[in-house]
């Protein structure tokens, strides 16, 4: 599967002029609010008709302004999960789910319905009205509704942005299952580095309506402060779930030689997982700290230090095969005498790894 | 209760009124939906002129509306002659004319009520429906119409109530012919014009009050039921 998008569009004084490609899997459109991500997704969906643009999915030209070709929204079969769930208030959950299925034709079997309902854990909600659901439940129903319309492509516009932390942690695993169990390509809009790190294979960074950078998630997210706001600088760590601590509601993730504890019971043991560890959440110590609440103390050696910027430096530390970034003050660097090759302990609070 | 017993002529007037009001309400509904949709969503030249024409019967003296109908839909009027010659549909001095007059008088009320509810619809829900594969007609039927149902019900009841009470335009357009165009209001008026007609006027007035009250309460019930169904998420 391949998706090609090119669009330029002017809305008042704001201009979008962007192009990106996706080769399947999850492609994240990443950028701060107001950068034009949502408009770009609306153009892909057909809800917004750009001044100029071209959209091709698997060689099938969906829209091409040069050839005056424009497939209307309802014939694109692109599923769309909006930031607010947009469930139909006059229909029950069951009928909301069945809505797109009906237009997709009778091709969908009852077992498909049952499978998706099971995957999203919404079996108990079927007879309820959308107004009686919690935010997280609504969003899961919205995902199910989009999936049951047998989309060729799934667009998700900040589906977690309107939810609190606990609800996000509740839904993310479902989206991961969706990514791993269905083969539908996903374009995922987000301004959260942690979400993008966890879900996306490819990242397209949008700024002021333009593509600032694009590439695989590990390349883009590990670029020192290139694409990502300086405040968000950090490192992407890949690992696998080792075990669950049900009593303390923690998940232990093995990444290289390190064990990292993260909050909530996420994913099943053995599943691959990606963590984004922001530099400002990592402390460094030259001796092994004792009597400390932080659960993750990783041994490592300093790879390099960035030049000081506004009094702070980014220190890259190799911890058992993972490169972790720590942002400390230039004062601490001098006080501890940090330099490349020096062994240090990187300390990460577990709760800082919440989504 | 002896005095409440209605004469045949009085029953005829009641039945005629109900028939005229029902036909007026049902036949203006599709047109009102289209016009309300155009006024609420359309961006076309002459939109404010259309709005003005729709609201005209509300502000004009009913006699004037009746007179205009007579000019347009009378036997020799341009529209009236065309309809009579091509479809055999005659309005002048027929109960159909009374229904037309009532429909025109109730039209602004119906359009207003439907238009307000269309403007209150969250268009993002319609966008969501189209991403799920519904074409514009299906979006309208499966999302828009259910969401504006309370407005439609209110509009229908208002139109019905207006038709039950309509007098000026009807009597000007189709006169006051017992059994054909003499509605409840016209019958009451006739009773008050003859000596000793007070009892008859009183009987019909009571019927009129009961019908109006029933219509009003029914509309409240239906609107509440529709609102319960579509309670915002």
Secondary-structure map with pairings?
The complex is a heterodimer of chains A (355) and B (233).
Chain A: E1 3-11, E2 14-22, E3 26-30, H1 37-45, E4 52-57, E5 60-64, E6 69-70, E7 78-81, H2 93-103, H3 110-120, H4 135-148, E8 153-157, H5 165-181, E9 186-190, H6 193-199, E10 202-207, E11 210-216, H7 217-222, E12 234-245, E13 250-255, E14 258-263, E15 272-278, E16 282-285, E17 296-305, E18 312-319, E19 322-329, H8 330-336, E20 343-348
Parallel strand pairs in A: 3-9, 3-10, 7-8, 8-9
Antiparallel strand pairs in A: 1-2, 1-4, 4-5, 5-6, 10-11, 12-13, 12-15, 13-14, 16-20, 17-18, 17-20, 18-19
Helix pairs in contact in A: 2-4, 3-4, 4-5
Chain B: H1 8-41, H2 47-59, H3 62-73, H4 78-87, H5 95-119, H6 123-131, H7 136-165, H8 168-174, H9 184-193, H10 198-229
Explain what you see.
Chain A has 355 residues and is α+β, with helices and mostly antiparallel strands. Chain A has two domains: 3-231, Rossmann fold (3-Layer(aba) Sandwich), CATH 3.40.50.300; 234-353, OB fold (Dihydrolipoamide Acetyltransferase, E2P) (Beta Barrel). Helices cover 23% and strands 37% of the residues of chain A. Chain A is built from eight helices and 20 strands. In chain A, the strands form four sheets. Chain A has a six-stranded mixed beta sheet, with helices on both faces. In chain A, strands 2-1-4-5-6 form a five-stranded antiparallel beta sheet, covered by helices on one side. The longest helix of chain A has 17 residues, at 165-181. The radius of gyration of chain A is 22 Å and the shape is globular. The mean pLDDT of chain A is 87. With 233 residues, chain B is mainly α. Chain B has one domain (8-229): MetI-like (MetI-like fold). In chain B, helix 1 (8-41) packs antiparallel against helix 7 (136-165) and helix 3 packs parallel to helix 8. The radius of gyration of chain B is 20 Å and the shape is globular. The termini of chain B are far apart. At the A-B interface, strand 7, helix 2 and helix 4 of A face helix 6 and helix 7 of B. Chain B: Part of the binding-protein-dependent transport system for molybdenum; probably responsible for the translocation of the substrate across the membrane. Chain B: Keywords: Cell inner membrane, Cell membrane, Membrane, Molybdenum, Transmembrane, Transmembrane helix, Transport. Chain B: Belongs to the binding-protein-dependent transport system permease family. CysTW subfamily. Chain B: One of its GO terms (molecular function) is molybdate ion transmembrane transporter activity. Chain B: Residues 14-222 form the ABC transmembrane type-1 domain. Chain A: Residues 3-233 form the ABC transporter domain.
């Amino acid at each position: 599967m391949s998706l090609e998008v090119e669009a330029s569009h002017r809305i008042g004084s704001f201009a979008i002029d962007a192009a990106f490609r996706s080769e399947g899997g999850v492609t994240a459109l990443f950028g701060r609010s107001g950068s034009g991500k949502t408009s770009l997704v609306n153009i892909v969906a057909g809800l917004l008709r750009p001044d100029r643009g071209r959209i091709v999915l698997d060689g099938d030209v969906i829209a091409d302004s040069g050839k005056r070709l424009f497939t209307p929204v309802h014939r694109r079969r692109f599923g769309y999960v909006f930031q607010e769930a947009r469930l139909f208030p006059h229909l029950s959950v069951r009928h909301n789910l069945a809505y797109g299925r009906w237009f997709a034709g009778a091709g969908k079997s009852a077992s498909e319905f049952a499978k998706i309902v099971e995957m999203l854990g919404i079996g108990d909600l079927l007879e309820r009205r959308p107004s009686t659901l919690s935010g997280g439940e609504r969003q899961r129903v919205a995902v199910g509704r989009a999936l049951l319309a047998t989309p060729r492509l799934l667009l998700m516009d900040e589906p977690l942005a309107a939810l609190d932390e606990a609800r996000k942690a509740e839904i993310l695993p479902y989206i991961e299952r969706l990514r791993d169990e269905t083969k539908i390509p996903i374009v995922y809009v987000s301004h959260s580095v942690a979400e993008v790190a966890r879900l996306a294979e490819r990242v397209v960074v949008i700024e002021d309506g333009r593509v600032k950078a694009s590439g695989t998630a590990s390349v883009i997210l590990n670029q020192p402060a290139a694409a990502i706001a300086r405040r968000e600088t950090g490192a992407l760590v890949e690992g696998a779930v080792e075990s669950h601590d049900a009593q303390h509601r923690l998940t232990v993730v093995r990444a290289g030689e390190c064990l990292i504890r993260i909050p909530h019971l996420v994913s099943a043991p053995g599943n691959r997982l990606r963590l984004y560890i922001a530099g400002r959440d990592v402390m460094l110590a030259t001796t092994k700290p004792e009597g400390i609440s932080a659960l993750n103390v990783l041994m490592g050696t300093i790879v390099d230090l960035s030049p000081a910027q506004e009094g702070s430096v980014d220190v890259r530390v190799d911890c058992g095969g993972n490169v972790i970034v720590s942002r400390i003050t230039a004062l601490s660097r001098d006080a501890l005498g940090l330099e490349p090759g020096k062994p240090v302990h990187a300390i990460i609070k577990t709760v800082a790894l919440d989504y | 209760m002896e005095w409440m017993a209605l004469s045949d002529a009085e029953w005829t007037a009641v039945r005629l009124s109900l028939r005229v009001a029902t036909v007026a309400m049902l036949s203006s509904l599709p047109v009102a939906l289209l016009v309300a949709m155009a006024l609420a969503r359309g961006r076309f030249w002459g939109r404010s002129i259309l709005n003005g024409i729709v609201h005209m019967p509300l502000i004009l003296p009913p006699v004037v509306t009746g007179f205009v109908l007579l000019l347009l839909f009378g036997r020799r009027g341009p529209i009236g002659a065309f309809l009579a010659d091509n479809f055999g549909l005659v309005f002048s001095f027929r109960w159909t004319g009374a229904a037309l007059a009532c429909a025109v008088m109730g039209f602004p009320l119906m359009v207003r009520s439907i238009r307000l509810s269309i403007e209150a619809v969250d268009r993002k829900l319609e966008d969501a429906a189209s991403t799920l594969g519904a074409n514009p007609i299906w979006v309208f039927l499966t999302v828009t119409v259910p969401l504006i149902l309370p407005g439609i019900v209110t509009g229908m009841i208002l139109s019905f109530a207006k038709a039950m009470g309509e007098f000026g335009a009807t009597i000007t357009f189709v006169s006051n012919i017992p059994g054909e165009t003499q509605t409840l209001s016209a019958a009451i008026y006739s009773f008050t014009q003859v000596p000793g007609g007070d009892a008859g006027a009183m009987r019909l007035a009571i019927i009129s009050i009961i019908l109006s009250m029933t219509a009003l309460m029914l509309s409240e019930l239906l609107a509440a039921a529709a609102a319960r169904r579509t309670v915002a998420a």
